[in-house]
Design a protein that fits this description.
Elements: H1 2-5, H2 8-32, H3 39-57, H4 67-87, H5 92-108, H6 111-128, H7 130-133, H8 137-140, H9 142-211, E1 215-220, E2 226-229, H10 232-237, H11 241-246, H12 250-253, H13 257-273, E3 277-284, E4 290-301, E5 307-316, H14 318-364, H15 370-395, E6 404-406, H16 408-423, E7 427-433, E8 440-442, H17 444-460, E9 466-477, H18 479-483, E10 491-500, H19 507-512, H20 530-540, E11 544-549, E12 555-562, E13 586-590, H21 594-606, E14 610-614, H22 617-626, E15 633-637, H23 645-655, E16 660-665, E17 673-674, E18 677-678, E19 683-686, H24 691-707
Parallel strand pairs: 7-9, 13-14, 13-15, 15-16, 16-19
Antiparallel strand pairs: 1-2, 1-5, 3-4, 4-5, 6-8, 9-10, 10-12, 11-12, 17-18
């Protein structure tokens, strides 16, 4: 009912009904006193009746507010006062009771209370006029007047109170809504800001994952099922992310078979101990590559402390592993090289004695005798052994070089005819030479040896024929390339590549290919020193050599020598002048190996020289102090106890500045050479040597003194 009374249409209808009742009371008063009415009062009464009909047709919007209701009510009270006073003969006490009824009904604030006030006023009226009510019918009309007026006042006040409460409720609701809207607005603002921040963080996280050269992953325990993997996984290994997430045991199945047991054992042990761990292992890529990974793993627990998840980062360390292997190989070759150099030094001393005395014996035994043939075989074996030691020295980078500024295109062109004969007709030789090739500084004889050894190696790898391609080119390498190759220096280089279409090599063979005495050939068909010699010559020339090969795919050797700005020069071969091998000068021989010292002294004495022999440097210095005559030549070994040959020569120079020096050694030493290259004006004789070679070199050094 309250909701209905609150509607403007219902309000207007009820107001009309209450006012109609008041009109009937007023009409009854007018009719009852019709003899006393003037035309003006009749007109006022008729107007009052008609006005109620007007209320019926008034717009309902007027009744949304109480202004129209109160205005009509005040007009009704004014008209009713006139009628009551002028027509009905209300006295002051009755009018006072009427107004009191209106006032009290208004204070009642509801229809029920106002009706109670009306009954109270009517009872009071009856009590005050009880003596006239029985005789005066007009007085009875005043009771409905009180009731109707009180009911109308109560209704109006009730509606007003309800309206005010409704308005207050609306205001309170509005305030609440405003507060809620403000709170929601703040929340939405914060939510938008949070959403923006979250979107930015998500964008940065995606960008981080895309830019990070590592695979971020998550997998469940104990089934090792991948639940998250970053896009880098597809770039690194070639498998789509969907396969990582959907296939059972995907990660386990793609671990390299040689590492799978070790990896799973490590994982299970770490899970049992509940600790983080990291490990390195190989995985198989989609294209068949083997990729080395370093996996850093964190173990995550749930609320109960049980391990539920693994999270980690996989980093590709394939290049790092390759560099480690190259470094190990370089260190291994370096160690073997030092050993080979030491062995060659001692072996050369022995070969000097064997070859030298066999030559002397051959000079004493006539040809055709059995002993002469035996001595010849001894000398041949000695010289074959000498060739082996030279290869060992080449590998250990301790042979004497005579570097020149070279044009590798010219060297290849000079070698082409000989290489064609060497490899045979069933192998096609192709040379690809870059015009304008830069110059290099190297020993031409050693570069020719490198090409010969590589050509022989290629020929043996193509027993049924094939193609041998020799290529030259200028190449430049930056820091990034140098970082991916052990000990490589960035700069400008000249490349010499020797490629074949032969059987190729597997990973194990490639790892050991440059080691001395390592060979894949049948017994008796190779010494295993060919590629070791190549390696040593290239390294001693400040170069680098790389091998690329796969089984059945042929082999490519690429040599990089530093590019020089000098112009290559031609060095025509001239016939060696005839040298008189005899002499009469005094020569001081210093050699800690007794057999070699005895042999050298014997050769020199037989050639007419005066010879002083010493086994140690201190003994040599003492001889120089005690000997009164001149000493024209010092022949000294380079590597000796107490001091080396260079130090001995410098000490002797302070006492005898005129004495020339000839060094001899089984391998090069930093005392007289820099990276195997003789220092200027240094005379050197490589062991082993023949009596004739010794006599020629001695005469050459002494004659140079006379020329100067």
């Amino acid at each position: 009912m309250r909701n209905q009374l609150s509607e403007p249409g219902q309000r207007r209808s009820i107001f009309f009904q209450l006012r109609a009742a008041l009109c009937f009371v007023t009409l009854g008063l007018l009719v009852f006193h019709r003899q006393q009415l003037s035309p003006l009062l009749w007109g006022l009464g008729i107007f009052y009746l008609v006005s109620n009909l007007v209320v019926r047709v008034l717009p309902t919007s007027w009744f949304k507010e109480f202004k129209a209701s109160y205005a009509i009510f005040l007009l009704d009270m004014a008209g009713m006062s006139i009628v009551l006073y002028s027509v009905a003969g209300f006295g002051s006490d009755s009018l006072l009771l009427f107004y009191l009824t209106v006032f009290m009904a208004t204070l009642g604030e509801s229809v029920t209370r106002s009706l109670g006030v009306a009954f109270g006023a009517s009872a009071l009226y009856i009590w005050l006029h009880v003596d006239t009510l029985l005789t005066d019918a007009e007085s009875l009309l005043r009771i409905p007047l009180f009731l109707t007026t009180a009911l109308l006042c109560g209704y109006l006040v009730q509606e007003l109170r309800q309206h005010k409460r409704h308005v207050q409720n609306l205001q309170d609701t509005q305030k609440d809504l405003e507060l809620q809207v403000g709170s929601i607005s703040n929340y939405l603002t914060l939510s938008e800001e949070s959403k923006t921040v979250a979107q930015e963080l998500a964008r940065r996280f995606r960008s981080l994952l895309e830019d990070l050269r590592a695979v971020v992953w998550e997998m469940s325990v104990p089934d090792f099922q991948v639940s998250f993997v970053s896009p880098e996984a597809e770039r690194l290994l070639g498998y789509p992310v969907e396969r990582w997430l959907s296939e059972k045991d995907f990660w386990v199945n793609h671990i390299h078979a040689g590492d799978r047991e070790r990896v799973l054992e490590t994982c299970q042990k770490a899970l049992a101990e509940g600790r983080d761990y990291h490990l390195e292992y190989r995985v198989s890529a989609a294209d068949g590559r083997v990729v080395w990974l370093q996996d850093i793993v964190r173990v995550l627990r749930d609320e109960s402390g049980k391990v539920r998840l693994l999270r980690g980062v996989m980093v590709d360390i394939t290049v790092h592993k390759q560099l480690e292997e190259e470094l190990r190989q370089a260190q291994r070759i370096e160690a073997v090289g030092r050993l080979a150099g030491g062995v060659a030094h001692d072996f050369n001393n022995l070969l000097t004695i064997i070859d030298g005395y066999s030559q002397l014996a051959l000079d004493l035994v006539p040809a055709g005798q059995g002993l002469h043939d035996h001595l010849t075989e001894i000398q041949k074996a000695s010289r074959r052994a000498s060739a082996l030691t030279r290869r060992l020295l080449a590998f250990s980078r301790r042979q004497a070089l005579q570097p020149q500024v070279l044009d590798l295109n010219a060297v290849v062109a000079d070698m082409e005819k000989m290489l064609r004969r060497l490899i045979g007709e069933d192998i096609e030789l192709v040379t690809v030479q870059q015009p304008g090739l830069g110059a290099v500084r190297a020993d031409p004889a050693q570069i020719e040896q490198v090409m010969l050894n590589l050509a022989v190696n290629a020929r043996d790898a193509m027993p049924h024929g094939g193609k041998l391609i020799i290529e030259t080119a200028n190449q430049d390498f930056d820091e990034s390339y140098a970082r991916s190759h052990v000990a490589f220096k960035p700069g400008s280089y000249v490349m010499l590549a020797v490629n074949d279409t032969g059987v190729g090599m597997d990973e194990y063979t490639r790892a050991h290919i440059f080691e001395p005495f390592f060979t894949t050939k049948e017994k008796g068909k190779g010494t295993g020193l060919g590629l070791a010699t190549v390696y040593g010559i290239v390294k001693q020339s400040d170069g680098y050599i790389w091998v690329y090969s796969e089984p059945g795919q042929g082999t490519s050797f690429k040599i990089y020598l530093p590019r020089r700005v000098e112009v290559p020069m031609a060095f025509p071969k001239v016939a060696a002048p005839r040298i008189q091998l005899k002499g009469s000068e005094t020569v001081l021989v210093v050699e800690d190996e007794d057999g070699v010292r005895t042999f050298v002294c014997g050769i020199l004495k037989s050639a007419g020289y005066s010879v002083l022999g010493a086994s140690r440097p201190d003994e040599a210095l003492r001889l120089c102090q005690q000997f009164d005559g001149g000493i024209q030549l010092l022949i000294t070994d380079v590597v000796m106890p107490q001091m080396n040959g260079r130090e001995l020569a410098e000490r002797l120079k302070t006492m005898r500045p005129e004495t020339r020096v000839l060094y001899m050694s089984g391998y090069t030493d930093a005392a007289i050479m820099h990276h195997g290259v003789l220092e200027p004006a240094v005379a050197f004789l490589q062991k082993p040597f023949t009596p004739d070679a010794l006599a020629r070199k001695v005469r050459e050094v002494l004659d140079a003194v006379l020329k100067t």
